[in-house]
Amino acid sequence: MAYLNDHYLKLKAGYLFPEIGRRVKAFGDANPDAAKRIIRCGIGDVTEPLPEAVRTAMHRAIDEMGTREGFHGYGPEQGYEWLRHAIAEHDFRARGLEVADDEVFVSDGSKCDCGNILDILGGDNRIAITDPVYPVYVDTNVMAGHTGDADASGAYGGITYLRCSAENGFVAAPPAEVVDVIYLCFPNNPTGAVATREQLTAWVEYALRHRSLILFDAAYEAYISDPSLPRSIYEIPGAREVAIEFRSFSKNGGFTGTRCACIVVPKTLLASTRSGEQLPLHPLWARRHTTKFNGVSYPVQRGAEALYTPEGKAQVAALIAHYMGNAAILRDAATAIGLRVYGGVNAPYIWCSTPAGLTSWEMFDRMLGEANVVITPGSGFGSAGEGYFRISAFNSRANAEEVARRIKAIAW
Ligand code: MLT
């Protein structure tokens, strides 16, 4: 007899975004005319074309692949040295941060990395997760058997939830209790909040004190324009001893469909064996990555490398400016109808309170039914997200303007 992984049976609902997709499809099937007007501001998927520098590099790489001399079979699982070097050099060393080339591991996405990292961590860690949160952090821990069952509110036993609200600016402070692994995401998905240097320092000091591990998701760092805000956890002294950083080309270079990301595992980062010995995580991740992954394709890595050329950097800056222009339009519209509006300044997500009396899913239904606009219900990110909804700024300018018009046209 084959046994299944019982932990999957603890998962409360379908993954949030496919669930939204199902509801939108059902609405569209029942309302074919309205379906033609639907504008999607739900999932944070980029809409603008790949930067020219990327396309040129990928074309060239594909032409190389068509020659005997330029053909590439399996590449190094951790990524080609030239891409690891470009990432370490431009994202870290050029900003005065110490990250060696071989501490960077290239992958096919941060979502995968966030789940895969659990392979090298023990099963008994006390996990801390913010609420609301990117659901992948929670669901992957449930799948790995690191939690108990969910209660009526959807909270899983064994997880320490760090409540984020308007009162704490949607940035949780370290808890009084000791936790072993902490997920932090800044700029935050879904709230758009960004931790200050002082707030991140408090987390790094907590982790140093308790020998905890911080899993720092920096997928949206390119959206930070305020120079006082940290764009990497390694800007905080001591972070190389306590943090793994996740980075992605999805939201800066438009790679959501192209797939390329990386994680940084400092060689100075240690974790404990059951017998209390402190050992580095770097060789474990190298072993895991080279055993279970065969690398990102050569043309895609060449495309990612091109993001670090002067042309690539200028084109990324233009993409960010475009999406942040949308964010400003959407923020203004939500403010104009009297909602409390957060995020959307150093982040591509706008986090809004629902109009009085509406739950997050009721707001989802009204936006879909009356404005034909798809948003993400805040409660889909955790119980503390109830009473909020998220609007994604990833869209064309025309769509962002149309969404703003439609939001303002509804009698709330
Ligand atoms: C989101 O909408 O939260 C993101 O697109 C999810 C992701 O990046 O996987």
List keywords for this structure.
single chain; 412 residues; alpha/beta; Aspartate Aminotransferase, domain 1; Aspartate Aminotransferase, domain 2; 2 domains; 7-stranded mixed sheet; 4-stranded antiparallel sheet; 12 helices; 36% helix; binds D-malate
Describe this structure as you would to a colleague.
The protein has 412 residues and is α/β, with parallel strands linked by helices. It folds into two domains: 142 residues, Aspartate Aminotransferase, domain 1, CATH 3.90.1150; 255 residues, Type I PLP-dependent aspartate aminotransferase-like (Major domain) (Aspartate Aminotransferase, domain 2, 3-Layer(aba) Sandwich), CATH 3.40.640. It has twelve helices and 15 strands. A hairpin with a 5-residue loop joins strand 11 and strand 12. Helix 3 runs antiparallel to helix 9. The N and C termini lie far apart (56 Å). D-malate binds next to loops.
